[in-house]
Amino acid sequence: MRAAYVMHQDAGDPLGGLGLGELDAPAPPAGWVRVHVQAASLNHHDLWSLRGVGLPAERLPMVLGTDAAGRTDDGRDVVVHAVVATAGWEGDETLDPRRTLLSELHPGTLADEVWVPERNVVPRDPALDVVDAACLPTAYLTAYRLLFDAAGLRPGQTVLVQGAGGGVATAAILLGRGGGLRVWVTSRDPGRAARAVELGAHEAFEAGARLPHQVDAVVETVGEATWSHSLKALRPGGVIAVAGATSGAMPPADLNRVFFRSLRVVGSTMGTRAQLVALQDLLVATGVRPVLDGVRPFDETRAAFERLASGEAFGKIVLTLT
Ligand SMILES: NC(=O)c1ccc[n+]([C@@H]2O[C@H](COP(=O)([O-])OP(=O)(O)OC[C@H]3O[C@@H](n4cnc5c(N)ncnc54)[C@H](OP(=O)(O)O)[C@@H]3O)[C@@H](O)[C@H]2O)c1
């Protein structure tokens, strides 16, 4: 099968270890189902795997990818849920201490086919095409859970989304608007800030700028570069919902501010199968659709990764495999 995979890992040159070509199809565990991938999208997670973060070298070569939409052998159109819990696990899959994401232990979605447990396929709502559906399982699901579960936001509240251009950030802008929130964003880049407003953000600010008033919650995926600003942006009792640390994971904690102002810091990873279903329902009900940086055929996977690594993408980069 055609696949994009991690050949070797290099923290400084992640794309140097990107393999593209034929790999043997995986031998699936008993009871898993095959999904013929029609569209798959890229995530920062794929770059971390190529850098050697979260993927031990002894598991190489490893097929990349956590997002896909496709068709099962028995003809069902599905979206793949990328959080693989251990057999028999009940409840929130993300809380299973032994859960993995596709491409960490089991081959990922950037291939002609991917095998997953039956519980990891969700029927694709016919209102969503395969490209839109392929954007959901990582960035959009993460944003959904950050806003409506980790931060517990309600219509009318204000959220600050740090780093406007990213996959999770653009998802948070769209879903936040769809869910009736006031959405503010920051960006290092005026062009991306302007595009965030076109997408629906109520206001965009320069990274680190003083805000008109403090916010109920912050969606934080940038990490060190924005952490201090995120803490200062919160009203007393506000919450930082954090799902990433692209610029570094060890900012000063500023504990005085955290306890004097009764702030909450809530970590969040991906989302549950039930939340993926709820996310689809939100998109169908609101008409919100993922923002796409580009859709490319699988032959252009390397260029797609170069675009992701450049940091210049705005929205999701999708590969089509049919
Ligand atoms: N926990 C989870 O389940 C989960 C799920 C998805 C993603 N993540 C993590 O969340 C992070 C973002 O993922 P993504 O797929 O959205 O990545 P992405 O599309 O590559 O977005 C990166 C964003 O970070 C901002 N950024 C990057 N470097 C920065 C710096 N030095 N200073 C300020 N801003 C910077 C950029 O914003 P501007 O250029 O607009 O300022 C850009 O919007 C990654 O670390 C990823 O691993 C976690």
Automatic annotation (TrEMBL):
What GO molecular-function term can you cite, just one? oxidoreductase activity
InterPro entries the UniProt entry points to: ADH-like_N, ER, GroES-like_sf, NAD(P)-bd_dom_sf, Zinc_ADH-like
Q: Which Pfam families match?
A: ADH_N, ADH_zinc_N_2
Q: What sequence ranges are listed for the domain Enoyl reductase (ER)? A: 13-319
Q: Matching PANTHER family, A to Z?
A: DEHYDROGENASE, PUTATIVE (AFU_ORTHOLOGUE AFUA_2G13270)-RELATED (PTHR45033:SF3), PTHR45033
UniProt-recorded name of the protein: Alcohol dehydrogenase zinc-binding domain protein
